[in-house]
């Protein structure tokens, strides 16, 4: 059709104008047609290349002696998508020393898949790992594909006595502090009573020797039986004090056990 159209226009007066228009059209449409062909047939740097890829987990690693559980199913899916999109083929080459990303040794060499990249044994490594400053000198990390959240799980500590754990919310140092406080209170009370007894005896001796006490004061003292405490009175007062503190401690333990029982029933 184009040849027939050119021959028909050749007999006309505007032959020169036609060729000018045809030349200009070819100049502007030629690069566009070339670009269209470039877009339809993309060329990548990995197109039709065969790569050696390192991995440590199945199903990429098909050796059942090395990997049994299919931990690497996500890596295989991503790798197959990249291979189909970029147009390359691959073979999996697992590391010979350790089935992991590897560790940095004292001589500066790496083990595992990182060591394979360092020794140029493979072209790429597909694994679950993170970037680090030590590995940055050897390899380049791609954009992260999968984010995995990890947590540390620990079991509850075993209780030596279930009865004690249900009735006590305090540790051993707390109970030791309570016992020391109780003993200190008893000792301080005994010292105070002894000091008061000594002061009373000293006051009586001073009053009798210097005759400074009036008759009315002596009468009141005898009427109210203000006299120094003996050993029996001191012992009785200490027993009463200890009994009061023991009752207080018992009430505290009862309230604590009731609170623990309520919490246990609430959990059930």
What does this protein structure show overall?
The chain is mainly alpha-helical and 268 residues long. It has two domains: 50-137, 3-Layer(aba) Sandwich (D-Maltodextrin-Binding Protein, domain 2), CATH 3.40.190.10; 162-267, no CATH class. The chain contains eight helices and three strands. It has helices at residues 2-9, 15-40, 73-86, 112-118, 162-167, 172-210, 215-224, 231-267, and strands at 50-54, 89-92, 124-125. It has a three-stranded parallel beta sheet with strand order 2-1-3, covered by helices on one side. Strand 1 (50-54), helix 3 (73-86) and strand 2 form a beta-alpha-beta unit. Helix 6 runs antiparallel to helix 8. The longest helix is centred in the last third of the chain and has 39 residues, at 172-210. Mean pLDDT is 69; it is low at 1-10, 31-41 and 223-227.
Short description:
The chain has 268 residues and is mainly α. It has helices at residues 2-9, 15-40, 73-86, 112-118, 162-167, 172-210, 215-224, 231-267, and strands at residues 50-54, 89-92, 124-125. Keywords: Cell membrane, Glycoprotein, Ion channel, Ion transport, Ligand-gated ion channel, Membrane, Receptor, Transmembrane, Transmembrane helix, Transport.
- Structural class from helices and strands? mainly alpha
Number of strands: 3
Q: What is the ordering of alpha helices and beta strands?
A: HHEHEHEHHHH
So what's the overall shape? rod-shaped
SSE arrangement:
Layout (H helix, E strand, L loop, with lengths): L1 H8 L5 H26 L9 E5 L18 H14 L2 E4 L19 H7 L5 E2 L36 H6 L4 H39 L4 H10 L6 H37 L1
Parallel strand pairs: 1-2, 1-3
Helix pairs in contact: 6-8
GO cellular component, one term: plasma membrane
InterPro entries: Glu/Gly-bd (IPR019594), Insect_Ionotropic_Sensory_Rcpt (IPR052192)
Pfam families: Lig_chan-Glu_bd (PF10613)
């Amino acid at each position: 059709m184009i040849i027939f159209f050119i021959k028909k226009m050749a007999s006309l007066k505007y032959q020169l104008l036609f060729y000018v228009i045809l030349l200009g059209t070819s100049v502007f449409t030629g690069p566009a047609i070339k670009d269209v062909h470039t877009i339809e047939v993309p060329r990548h740097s990995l197109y039709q290349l065969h790569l050696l890829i390192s991995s440590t987990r199945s199903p990429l690693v098909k050796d059942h002696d090395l990997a049994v559980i299919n931990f690497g199913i996500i890596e295989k899916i991503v790798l197959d998508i990249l291979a189909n999109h970029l147009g390359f083929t691959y073979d999996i080459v697992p590391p010979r020393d350790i089935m992991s990303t590897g560790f940095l040794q004292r001589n500066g060499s790496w083990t595992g898949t990182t060591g394979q990249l360092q020794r140029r044994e493979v072209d790429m490594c597909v694994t679950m790992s993170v970037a680090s400053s030590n590995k940055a000198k050897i390899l380049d990390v791609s954009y992260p594909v999968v984010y995995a959240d990890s947590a540390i799980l620990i079991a509850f500590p075993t209780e030596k006595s279930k009865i004690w754990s249900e009735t006590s919310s305090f540790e051993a140092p707390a109970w030791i502090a309570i016992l020391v406080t109780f003993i200190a209170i008893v000792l301080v009370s005994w010292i105070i009573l002894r000091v008061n007894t000594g002061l009373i005896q000293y006051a009586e001796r001073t009053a009798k020797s210097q005759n400074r006490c009036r008759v009315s004061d002596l009468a009141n003292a005898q009427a109210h039986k203000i006299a120094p405490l003996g050993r029996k009175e001191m012992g009785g007062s200490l027993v009463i004090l200890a009994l009061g503190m023991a009752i207080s401690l018992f009430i505290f333990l009862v309230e604590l056990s009731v609170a623990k029982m309520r919490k246990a029933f609430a959990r059930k």
